[in-house]
Amino acid sequence: MQRSQSNKSTNEISENTLSHLYETAIVIKNGVEERNYKSVLFSSIDNREATIESAVHIGFLLTQLKKKVLLVNLDHLNTDCINEYLHTEQKASLISQLKNSAYISEAITRTQYDDLDAMDIEEIDEDEFATTVNQYDLKSKLQPLTNYYDLLMVVGPETKSFNYYANIYELSDSAITIVNSKNNDKYLLKKHIDKFKVFNIRSFGILRKDN
């Protein structure tokens, strides 16, 4: 799996990192099967690229574990990123479809990988994003997709710089937090993870990854 502009592939990821990604995929798979989790949030304090890369790779691994996955990118500062990783030609249209269509499924991009689809976000101002998500009820429009996919994997923006994370938290019932394996702000990390309890989100733990 390779991103067109970064030339990164699974062959270039260390065996140790691949092992952690696979172990995380297994944990998520078990959560889906044993606790009926329908959505998992991938987020970080300030590791945007590592977050989307981890989500894409784990999404692919889950398809190899017989799960049908939809990747939903909600990082408004990293637009079209899933489409770039998966080499799809369809432009991001999540916000447009949310505003203009009764069926957000029209924003779904079919990828070259069986059972792995994507929904990517266009460029949008942070305040407008929060207003749009509330006004057009993104949560309700995503809900029917859980009847078709085993798991929705929601990619959130960096928590350090995003002011409306409640709108992201309420979309997920479980979470993985991505941190730099060498440097991370432990105070902000604890603050972020503590909020999972407020929104009744089950934390699957922390995935440490080199940037």
Automatic annotation (TrEMBL):
<dbReference type="InterPro" id="IPR027417">
    <property type="entry name" value="P-loop_NTPase"/>
</dbReference>
<protein>
    <recommendedName>
        <fullName>AAA domain-containing protein</fullName>
    </recommendedName>
</protein>
